[in-house]
Prior knowledge:
Blueprint: E1 2-8, H1 14-25, E2 28-31, H2 32-42, H3 45-55, H4 62-75, E3 82-86, H5 92-104, E4 111-116, H6 119-133, H7 140-154, H8 156-163, E5 167-171, H9 176-189
Parallel strand pairs: 1-3, 1-4, 2-3, 4-5
Helix pairs in contact: 1-9, 2-3, 4-5, 6-7
The structure holds BIS(adenosine)-5'-pentaphosphate (AP5) and magnesium ion (MG).
Amino acid sequence: MKNIVIFGAPGSGKGTQSDKIIAEYGVAHISTGDVLRGEIKAGTELGKTASAYINEGKLVPDSLIIDMLAVTLDAKGKDIPGVIFDGFPRTIAQAEALNEMLAARGEKVSVVIGLEVDDEELIKRIIARGKTSGRADDNEETAKKRLNTYYSQTLPLKDFYINEGKYAKIQGVGTIDGIYADIKKAIDAAE
Length: 191
Ligand code: AP5
Ligand code: MG
């Protein structure tokens, strides 16, 4: 199985490139952001708790996310060629939990696709998307908070995965197809 982590700041293109990876490799998509927005829409307790964090550009607590991820992963079943994890892990604790969850299933992370995009471009993309996305966190003020959260809590994972020999640095600025071509090379090179 190919278990791919797509990693990068808010607006770096994780969702956009996940769609292309899914179309080519048939892997199952797990976007923790999408799952949380589904919970908010459904008005669940988890959704109510999560929306307070999301609207402030903060991370939802690890314990809630890790439990939610385990349920989502189990629901995908065993007949899948792999999973693309989009927006997860976002903390060292989540990365360690993912390694344990996959090991318990006889699996591992194959590769981490690290989309690298400058801050100015990220903010520009999020503001542009905010005109149509309906996402409460797609505005300049919250985008800046999301970026701060990314640098303080999520970026340390880059070194975590470099140490594991799994980090593939991808230049995330350019055409969507050009970026995808680099991603495909990194996926095909991974075990
Ligand atoms: P989440 O939904 O994961 O959002 P995010 O990481 O902030 O990233 P986005 O979805 O905004 O961007 P993206 O990288 O997918 O880029 P996209 O392809 O859309 O998380 C939201 C919140 O949920 C978090 O802040 C947190 O509160 C909570 N949360 C989620 N997971 C969590 C976790 N594991 N732990 C704790 N809390 C969690 O592209 C962006 C835009 O740019 C689009 O409009 C796109 O069309 C455009 N674009 C894409 N590629 C290009 C390109 N090459 N050139 C120009 N434009 C492009
Ligand atoms: Mg996304």
